[in-house]
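Researcher: Next sequence.
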Amino acid sequence: MVHRMTLKCALFCNQVLLLLLRNGQTFTIPAKHHIDKGSLGSVPTYQKSVRFRGKLYGSNHHGLSESSSASSVEEKARSLREKAEALRKEASLASVELEADKETAKKRKYEQAEVFIHEIKDILDYNRPIEQSGGAEVYWSEKMKEEIVESDKQAVYNKLKRGEQLPSTKLLLLVAERIFQRREECLKKLRDLEMVRDEKTSPEASTFNIGDAFNQQKEKLKKADDDTAKYGVEIVQYMTMWDYIVRAIEKMGVEDEEEFGISIDSSLYRLDESSDVKAYVSQQKGADFTSMAKELRAKERELMMESIANSARRVVAGINEKAEKEKESPVESFVDQTLGLPGKTDNNRKEFNVTSSALYDFIALPKWVPGSLGGLVVTSGKKIEQSDLKLLKEEVLDGSRFYVSSKDSTKLVAIYRGYVQPSRKSVPRNSESYEEAGLSGEVFSEIVERLNHAPDNLSDRVQLFLYDDPEYSPKVDYGGPQKVIIATSKSVQPEQGELRGTGGTALVAMSTIFSCVGILSYSLLSFALNENLYDPSTGDLKSIFVQGTFVISGGIIALQLLHELSHWIMSKRLDVKMGLPVPIPSLQIGLLGTIAPLRSFPNSRTELFDFAFAGPATTFLISVIAYMCGLSLTVNASVDSIPFFPVWPAAVFKSSFLTGCMASLLASKIMLLPAATPVPIHPLCTIAEVGLVSSALNLLPIGRTDGGRVSTSVFGDKSAQALSLATFFFMAVVCLTKRSVLLIFWGLFTLLFQRTPEIPTRDNVTEVHDGRFIFYCVMLVLSILTLVPFPGGLAM
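Model: Next structure:
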């Protein structure tokens, strides 16, 4: 503190002196003296000027008085300069001492951590120079052998388990900080060495050298290579050592939970005399290794993400510096154009840059944030206040049937890991009781209800999501995956329509126009093979076919409206917001369907299933009925009406296994005709064909389509993503073997615009009912049968 005050005083005096000398101070020097001209006669006037720091002080007769005043001023200035110089030296010494004090405090802070790190390095034989092992490659080929790795892990475990005193969580957190500091120091040295190597390989350095200069260059380059290997090995040593430490503590946690039961984070509860948690915590033996391990892993993620974010900032700064020299756009502008991140305002209506913050927030996003939620959290950019998390802990979680075992948080999101119990009257101490408690959805609903009644309108600022632990590992987590509650700001919402921007609105308008044109073209082309299409006398299109074109177009639009009406009715029943649908044009059938965006989070996977499945299932079933009615009307049509029917080649009936089967049952003679034979067909079949194909495509489990949403609700996020990849593979096989233009177009469209995961539901744990699963499997099989060709036919 004394050093800092001395430094401030010196800087203040220095500023005062500079101000005095730069702006000048008025020194009074006599300018007029009365002399008796009669006695002395005519005497020329003597004037002398004194310049002091650019200020001119005029005088005339008395040069001696002026000279003495000027010397006095100069003496004062010299004195002030000497004092300022002395203070400057004292401040410099104080600054050096302050840095030394900081370094001493840092060493004192990490002193015990350094001792612990040195002991672990001795156990793992990391203190031995790698030169004694024959170099980095030989060293790591020896250390990475399976038996050596297992031996090292066991040695660290024995050190922690059987040591005189187990290191505290605080000490281990300091160890983590120190290890990552060492890692950053090594990375900095590696970057410096890379610059040295680049200088040696640059064209300017490739000039002709002789004698000692050449040898010095060669030795310097060799030393840079050796140091690079040395620091690279040191980085791997530190990270491996830290991993062994945390794995040992995780192993101890598993052993303790097997013996004493599941651990609970008691810091989240009020441990008064009536608390059931207090009774349970008092039965736990020793340290809570599970919570300790999770806290250490959280610290590891935090430090690693910080390191990655710092590296990203360095890269971005370098690119921006280069872009500024070349007068190009910075990285933030490119990201903004690529992701289309809009400008936002915080709660105080103050604008902030979403793009620059989102770029780094995405890099630093923890692994425990699910992918379907992470993008929304980052693009929202809204922080979750610590005061709200405290209120959530005290007023919502404490008192519920969700027992928290560990917690973690960032500025954007928080996670509470724990277990659902059947009752708060007694907390079970074994895994069997936990396995019997299949009440996740019910308990989560109770927690949401408690949130809605929490004080200070907490539900207006915080929202909750229920997941299985995204970081679950059978080798580490005992008793199956924990349930986790993830808390975010209430501002984290799906994309809203007003955020679409000019480009998005224009794209929707173009898609709508092209869809209308495509439907009219498909309807008119369905009459193209009809020999009565044109009037022989005038060559004009007959009006009855124009009417038929509009009838077919109206039927296709009506089917699609029925699809969207089903979504809308279900959204109103479930209280889920949906946006305006966006049509998808097609060159083959006019319309492939629509995209119905969700504007709010469904409460459960069942709600997501009901919303997504209602549209395509309704349209598909009605299209099947319409197609069968159309075939029946075609077979029983009068001779007078057939000349005005649409005409299809017989191959169209064989392009789908399902339509081929229906035609075989109701109009079997059509399936016996050659592929190129024109076949009159009732307009109802033409309309139903579009409904069947579009519904079948929409039911495929891909991305954010209706089928992708249904598969997410039935199988969960990870399984749905795997199923989506399998579907893409299936479509690729069909496209390559049967050359299906329709599937190629649909695959490209979904790959470009609908490949991202669906927005999450609030309860991602509770599965859908078995009846819904069976119904979906039946509809999925029918969809596949619609898209694969009938034997002997060609794909659409």
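Model: The chain has a mean pLDDT of 75. The CA atoms of residues 519 and 679 lie 21 Å apart.
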